[in-house]
Design brief:
mainly alpha; 86% helix; 0% strand
């Protein structure tokens, strides 16, 4: 397994995308709990 700059870019991009997804999920979760949308959807 050799480390390549392109693979490093992919890892960075993947990490950033994961952070964005987790942040959006956390924000959506908090928003849903505030309005109680989660209870209505389920």
């Amino acid at each position: 397994m050799r480390r390549r700059p392109c693979s490093a870019r992919l890892w960075i991009f993947a990490a950033l995308s994961m952070v964005v997804i987790v942040a959006k999920a956390a924000m959506f979760g908090a928003h849903a709990q505030r309005r109680g949308v989660s209870a209505q959807l389920s």
